[in-house]
Amino acid sequence: MMPTAEHHRIFRIGWLRAAVLGANDGIVSTASLIAGVAAAQTSHEAILAAGLAALVAGALSMAAGEYVSVRSQADTEAADLQMEMRSLRGNAAQELDELIGIYVARGLSPDLAAQVARQLTQHDALDAHARDELGISLHNRARPVQAAAASAGSFAVGAALPLAVSAMAPLPGVIGAVTVASVACLGLLGAVSARAGGAPMGRASIRVMVLGALAIGLTAGVGALAGVAV
């Protein structure tokens, strides 16, 4: 019988982290803002305007922040690879010994480690050192544009949910409707992200639901206090 193919999830980590963070932030921040504004006893139009502004500003902020952060990581990786290229050109023998030492430390015999290091160096020296010395591989390289797009898109999708609920709900019931819908969607998001990453779904769902409900409740409380003060 043919062995069962393995489907590892590490290849998804680059976009999955950004997408989950964006969607979670979109739901929590927009729902919290809507609940806070609604608790301040303002009009339905003001609530919708605040929610729409939160969606646009949040998506742009997520895209910019994620791009800058991951771009910094990509620049660091590029600088390290350039340094490694120079070292390979000027100190090839020393770099080979370093690679052999890495493989010996991982459990290979010195003879086998030397054989493996030489063959990998002949095939692609930079790739071997990038992967085994620096921990940089094709699957975990920083991708700033992909991360920014995933964050912005998922934030907008997440923020659209509480905004749509607030548009449809009557003014007296906006806070309750937005809270229930947002917490439910947070639970679904936690389950989906855990499933995609191979983690337990129940624990992930409960965690994001509790934290999301707490954020919305606290913001609604601040909005209520502000409304009384005004």
Task: Describe this entry's structure for a reader.
This protein is mainly α. It has one domain. 82% of the residues lie in helices and 0% in strands. α1 packs antiparallel against α6, α2 packs antiparallel against α5 and α3 crosses α4. The protein starts with 12 loop residues before the first helix and ends with a helix. The N terminus is likely disordered. This is Membrane protein. InterPro entries: Ccc1_fam. It comes from Bordetella ansorpii. Pfam families: VIT1 (PF01988).
- Assign an overall shape: elongated
Mean pLDDT: 83
The total number of structural domains is: 1
Distance between the termini: 74 Å
Number of helices: 7
Structural class: mainly alpha
Unreliable spans: 1-11
From the alpha-carbon coordinates, what is the Rg to the nearest angstrom?
25 Å
Q: How many individual β-strands?
A: 0
Please state roughly what percent of the residues sit in beta strands, choosing from under 5%, 5-15%, 15-25%, 25-35%, 35-45% or over 45%. Answer: under 5%
Helix proportion range: over 70%
One letter per element, helices H and strands E, the order comes to: HHHHHHH
Main beta-sheet strand count, sense and barrel state? none
Which terms summarize this structure?
single chain; 230 residues; mainly alpha; 82% helix; 0% strand; elongated; disordered N terminus; coiled coil; Membrane protein
